From TrEMBL, chain A:
The protein's name: Uncharacterized protein
Keyword terms of this UniProt record: Membrane, Transmembrane, Transmembrane helix
Species of origin: Candidatus Roizmanbacteria bacterium RIFCSPLOWO2_01_FULL_35_13
Positions of transmembrane segments: 21-46, 88-107
Domain of life: Bacteria
Automatic annotation (TrEMBL), chain B:
UniProt source species: Candidatus Roizmanbacteria bacterium RIFCSPLOWO2_01_FULL_35_13
InterPro entries registered for this protein in UniProt: RNA_pol_sigma-70-like, RNA_pol_sigma-70_dom, RNA_pol_sigma70_r2, RNA_pol_sigma70_r4_t2, RNA_pol_sigma_r2, RNA_pol_sigma_r3/r4-like, WH-like_DNA-bd_sf
Protein's UniProt name: HTH luxR-type domain-containing protein
Transmembrane segments: none
Residue ranges of every copy of the RNA polymerase sigma factor 70 region 4 type domain listed in the record: 111-162
GO molecular function terms listed in the Swiss-Prot or TrEMBL record: DNA binding; sigma factor activity
GO biological process, alphabetically ordered: DNA-templated transcription initiation
Family: Belongs to the sigma-70 factor family. ECF subfamily.
Length: 126, 171
């Protein structure tokens, strides 16, 4: 019976090892991919805005408060008109997904840590 | 070894402390093995079924209802695995008529027995059903809150009634 118990546990730990490492790999890959995609989109947007010289309109903020107050909404209007909306949406989307994945990973971290501890104990501490 | 209830063990496993599954394995392996061995006489096949059943139980730990005991669920998994095993066995043997009629007869007999069990008095029905699910007399006594000897008597009477009604039916 002891032998059978050992066989059962070995099978379960083998399955769990595969699952844990596969999930860990996929989660980290997804987090990194979405985060990098978000960064790339932001870089692209900034480059685009520099190229269009759209950012120059913000130089108005160096002026007096009165002038800023008078032209604030106009500046914002111009900025939204000239900015690449689709790319900004994509950047926000990817960043939101990456933040969601990171938060989920942090929430589940204790569970993953416990699993890894158990696996290490089983495979190495015997 | 600190004794933990199934509920506590399942909670721990759900939290990722998978080494607690060892408790479940140690607690139920013998029972499951004996139950399977009664139906399948080949030791290797029995061991395979027991291993797969525990693996299936482990895979479904996340879905387990904490308020329900683990053992009946495990028995259900074993029953399903045995069905799969018999199905596989049949696939390897050429399908002749004898197997088909055997299966029909087996199903018919099972149905008759189930009907007869339903006809038993409430207490006997419960006890006999629990025995057929693989519970020990001790566990049944605990479930039904009755002394062990009373349970033995109830089950014996139930069995005798079943044998009698089976004889009547075949006559």
């Amino acid at each position: 019976m002891k032998q059978l118990e050992k066989k059962i546990l070995k099978k379960i730990y083998f399955f769990e090892t595969q699952q844990t490492f596969l999930q860990l790999f996929l989660r980290i890959l997804a987090m990194v991919s979405f985060f990098l995609a978000g960064i790339i989109w932001i870089y692209y947007i900034v480059q685009e805005l520099i190229y269009q010289q759209t950012l120059d309109i913000f130089e108005i903020f160096r002026e007096d408060l009165m002038i800023i107050r008078e032209n604030f909404w106009e500046v914002i209007g111009i900025f939204t008109e000239e900015s690449p909306i689709l790319e900004i949406m994509l950047a926000i989307g990817t960043l939101v997904i990456s933040v969601y994945l990171i938060v989920k990973f942090i929430v589940n971290f204790v569970k993953i840590k416990n699993k890894l501890n158990s696996l290490i104990k089983f495979w190495f501490a015997r | 070894m600190k004794s933990l209830s199934d509920k506590e063990i399942i909670i721990k496993i759900k939290k990722g402390e998978i080494d607690y599954f060892t408790y479940i394995v140690k607690k139920y392996t013998r029972q499951i093995y004996n139950f399977t061995f009664k139906k399948i006489k080949n030791r290797e096949d029995v061991e395979d079924i027991v291993q797969i059943s525990f693996l299936q139980l482990y895979k479904s730990v996340g879905r387990l209802d904490l308020e329900k005991p683990v053992l009946p669920y495990l028995f259900q998994i074993v029953r399903n695995e045995m069905k799969m095993f018999w199905r596989r066995q049949k696939a390897t043997v050429s399908l002749d008529e004898k197997i088909a009629t055997d299966e029909k007869e087996e199903n018919l007999e099972k149905e008759i027995v189930e009907k007869q069990i339903e006809k038993l008095p409430k207490e006997q029905k419960k006890a006999v059903k629990l025995v057929s699910q693989g519970y020990s007399y001790k566990e049944i006594a605990k479930f039904l809150n009755k002394p062990l000897n009373t349970i033995r008597t109830i089950i014996r009477r139930g069995r005798l009634k079943l044998i009698k009604s089976k004889k009547n039916e075949t006559a």
